[in-house]
Structures are given as structure tokens and as C-alpha cells.
Design brief:
258 residues, globular, PAP2/HPO_sf, Acid phosphatase, hydrolase, EC 3.1.3.2
């Protein structure tokens, strides 16, 4: 398999799994939030960049420069990373074991449970800052359909970094690989052209605050303990992810996309 075909396979695997986490629970009512109230991260995040500032111009420069990545292997990875429902598959290589709703059902359930807490914090901040997405400021193609929602902080990045932090806690010996992959999921939004680089940075801060708040909840910690046992058992008996796909992914992650 050629490198480009291998990269295309990475995207195909996650896209074909579309709805992977959520589909398993589609017949169930969405679980209640762990947090008693949405976390207001506007007190934590730096203000969104405004016209005339260096951060604003840096966002524009990065967006325009990364349009040249269209058709590259990194662009293909960004397309696959856009499917946030396939987050488990996206982390399989970095975790060193195949993750999906069937191999790790308790983990999948935990992720389903935190989605409202992650989404509530992100949406509230977006509504507060009202930062426009990069393609509404400068012309440029995107790797997926152009969203109608706001930019800052990125919901995809908040989601990916939240999952990365949780997985790093569950597999501490794989922390560097997991957090590198989590960072790349966020960078994919910039490569894709649907978020500014500042929105990706804010997404990581947003996620860190949400995950910290989740750890203050007894129910979350109890569920996490159950997932920890599931992951420990899976590491002993679970299948390793495809070595070719993981090698191609690692090669891409070793390069700074912008």
C-alpha cells in the first residue's frame, strides 16, 4: 500500500464508522450532564482576536497559507478527523489498542455522557465572543462543508482535547502519543479551514477547564474508575491497530502542519 493510499485508509476508516460513538446509543435518551450547571469558560479564555490585532492577522496568515494543503495527506487526515463521532477510532493508534464502541463500551458511554458538558461550555463561549470563521473573513476552500456556526472556541477541538485528556489519564504510559494525537485533531480544524488557529488554542483551554470541572463530580469519577478497569482488561486481550495505518499517521504527526 502506498503512503497516500494508507492515509486515505485512515480517513475512510473513521468516516465509515460514522456515528460510531453515538450510533450505539441512538435508541437511548441522552444522559444528563455530569456538571450541575454549564461551565462558563469566558472567565478563563483569552478574548477572541479582533481586527487590527496581531492575533487576528496571525489567524488570517495561517488560514491563507494552509489552503495550499488541499489534496495533501494532511488534508486527507483532516477530513477524517472532522468526524467527531469516530473519536475512539482516531485515538486507536496512539492508545496502542483498537478502540471502538464494541471493544470499549464503558468508555463510549462515558464519552456520550460528557458530550453535553463539553457542548454547553463551547456554545456559551461562542455566543459570547461571536468570532467569525476564517472563510468568512478571507476567501478559501475548506475540506468539509462550511459550517454556519461561530468560531471561538472550536467545539471539535474542545471535544478532541477532552477525550485526549481522559485517555491520557486512563493510559498514562501512552500520554505523549495520546496528547499528540489530540493536538493533531485540533490542528486538523485549522488545516481544514473551518477554524482559526486561535480558536483551536482556545478549544484546548476550554477542554482543560471542562475536564478539571468533571473531576470534581463524584459520578464522573465513579464512571471513570469503571472505564479504567475496562481499558486495563482491553490492553491485555484487545487487538492492536493496523501497523501500516499507525506508521502513516505517526509520519504525519511528526510534521508541523502550519
Amino acid at each position: 500500500m502506498t503512503p497516500r493510499n494508507t492515509i486515505a485508509t485512515i480517513a475512510a476508516v473513521v468516516l465509515l464508522a460514522g456515528g460510531g460513538v453515538w450510533a450505539a446509543f441512538a435508541a437511548d435518551a441522552p444522559p444528563a450532564s455530569y456538571l450541575p450547571a454549564p461551565l462558563d469558560t469566558t472567565h478563563i479564555l483569552p478574548p477572541a482576536p479582533t481586527a487590527g490585532t496581531s492575533r487576528y492577522e496571525a489567524d488570517r496568515t495561517i488560514f491563507l497559507q494552509t489552503r495550499s494543503l488541499k489534496g495533501s495527506d494532511r488534508w486527507t487526515m483532516a477530513i477524517g478527523d472532522a468526524d467527531s463521532a469516530s473519536i475512539l477510532q482516531q485515538f486507536s493508534c496512539s492508545a496502542g489498542v483498537t478502540l471502538d464502541k464494541d471493544t470499549a463500551p464503558r468508555l463510549a458511554a462515558l464519552l456520550l455522557h460528557i458530550r453535553k458538558d463539553v457542548g454547553d461550555s463551547t456554545n456559551a463561549a461562542k455566543d459570547f465572543y461571536k468570532r467569525q470563521r476564517p472563510f468568512r473573513i478571507d476567501e478559501g476552500e475548506t475540506c468539509v462543508a462550511k459550517p454556519d456556526s461561530l468560531d471561538y472556541p472550536s467545539g471539535h477541538v474542545t471535544w478532541g482535547w477532552s477525550v485526549g485528556l481522559i485517555l491520557a489519564e486512563l493510559l498514562p504510559d501512552r500520554t505523549p502519543q495520546i496528547l499528540l494525537r489530540a493536538r493533531a485533531i485540533g490542528e486538523s480544524r485549522v488545516v481544514c479551514g473551518v477554524h482559526n488557529a486561535s480558536a483551536a488554542e482556545a478549544g484546548r483551554t476550554n477542554a482543560s477547564a471542562v475536564v478539571a470541572a468533571l473531576h470534581g463530580q463524584d459520578a464522573f469519577r465513579k464512571d471513570l474508575d469503571g472505564v479504567r478497569k475496562e481499558i486495563a482488561a482491553l490492553r491485555k486481550t484487545g487487538a492492536a491497530p493496523d501497523a501500516g495505518i499507525c506508521k502513516a499517521e505517526a509520519d504525519l504527526l511528526a510534521k508541523d502542519p502550519y
